[in-house]
Amino acid sequence: MQPRNFLLFLSLLLFLGAAAPAQSPRKKPAATCATCHEEQALPQPQTPMAHAIELPPHNQVLTAHPSLIFRKDGYTYSVVTKDGRSVYTVTDGTHTISLPIMWAMGAQAQTWVLERNGSMYESRVSYYPSIHALQITTGDEQLAPKNLDEAIGRPIGTDEAKACFNCHGTNSIHNHQLDLQAMHPGLTCERCHVGVQAHAAGMLAGSASAPIPPSLGKLQPEDLSNFCGQCHRSWETVVRAHWKGPADVRFQPYRLANSRCFNGADPRISCVACHDPHQNVIRNITYYDAKCLACHGQPAASKTESPAPKACPVAKSRCVSCHMPQESLPNGLLRFTDHQIRIVKANEPYPN
């Protein structure tokens, strides 16, 4: 998904065949993993990442909002959900196009992937929980449809489709081709832990030589940032693409790498130093105080060690409320914690 488009959430941010994937309840992909890794495997299916793609009839957002209507530029959009089936409709008052929603990207805010005449589209409108309603999809505000066909949404090319489904689902790519029949909606163990299926099979068979997937927690912070940045956008990805402005706040690995304290080697400042990807994100900001104080205010371990980061002269609690402020995307409908750790000054421009 291009960064200017809604892909949610992220972290950020978004995503064919004529036949829809199997409409079965979401399985527990971590069941065999939980035999040995219960602490990680049991809560993971409840996380937003595990629900990065929602399929009908299990889309709780649309079930809770069975009739959504939005009007823009002479077009009326509606999303109607009934009996486990959701239909996306756009009309100009004379002609109408209705398409079934097969794939919903996002566990809370949602953008829909539509299929028409063998082509895929990102829906022009999305659902935003901040307003409990539809609005133009983030990044598409400047698009001006010239006809009803264009009003459906933005066309998605093959490479973009592969990238979207690869980040929002598991097992969606085979032999470099998109395979939605084999895809599991959302992220499961095997999406991040390569080789986990062979490992689980070997362990269940009692094999002493069962392959062990690499431990992501042992990666250097720089490598871990790049690993998470495959979907959440790495520093290199953002810089090479010349993306700038407040919309970049949702690219956490990029923003973290811009922090003065990030050196790519200190494990105290990395993605997993503060966040456990197997758990829901902790929203209580005081939880992160200990993470900040693990560096700031601690004396150097030896005379040869670099001086410890300075302690904050203002407070030792609620650190992120000042040094990692919340920023809104340009449309004001989504807010993200800015992971560029810094001393924030009043009325300063957004730091790229």
Task: Report on this structure.
The chain is α+β, with helices and mostly antiparallel strands and 352 residues long. It contains twelve helices and 17 strands. It has helices at 38-41, 60-64, 148-151, 158-168, 189-192, 196-204, 221-232, 235-241, 252-257, 271-274, 289-293, 319-323, and strands at residues 53-54, 67-72, 75-82, 85-91, 96-100, 103-105, 111-116, 119-123, 125-128, 133-136, 153-156, 169-170, 173-174, 177-178, 184-185, 326-328, 335-337. The strands form six sheets. It has a five-stranded antiparallel beta sheet with strand order 1-6-7-8-11. A hairpin with a 2-residue loop joins strand 2 (67-72) and strand 3. The protein is globular and about 70 Å long. It starts with 37 loop residues before the first helix and ends in a 15-residue tail after the last strand. The relative contact order is 0.13. Residues 1-31 have low confidence and may be disordered.
**SS strand fraction:** 15-25%
What is the H/E order? HEHEEEEEEEEEHEHEEEEHHHHHHHHEE
Radius of gyration, in angstroms, nearest whole number: 22 Å
Distance between the termini: 21 Å
Q: Mean pLDDT, nearest integer? A: 88
**Major sheet strand order:** 1-6-7-8-11
Structural class: alpha+beta
Number of helices: 12
Profile the largest sheet. Answer: 5 strands, antiparallel
Low-confidence stretches: 1-31
Shape assignment: globular
Q: How many beta strands in the DSSP annotation? A: 17
Instruction: Give the fraction of residues assigned to helices.
Output: 10-25%
List the helices and strands and how they pair.
Blueprint lengths: L37 H4 L11 E2 L5 H5 L2 E6 L2 E8 L2 E7 L4 E5 L2 E3 L5 E6 L2 E5 L1 E4 L4 E4 L11 H4 L1 E4 L1 H11 E2 L2 E2 L2 E2 L5 E2 L3 H4 L3 H9 L16 H12 L2 H7 L10 H6 L13 H4 L14 H5 L25 H5 L2 E3 L6 E3 L15
Antiparallel strand pairs: 1-6, 2-3, 3-4, 4-5, 6-7, 7-8, 8-11, 9-10, 12-15, 13-14, 16-17
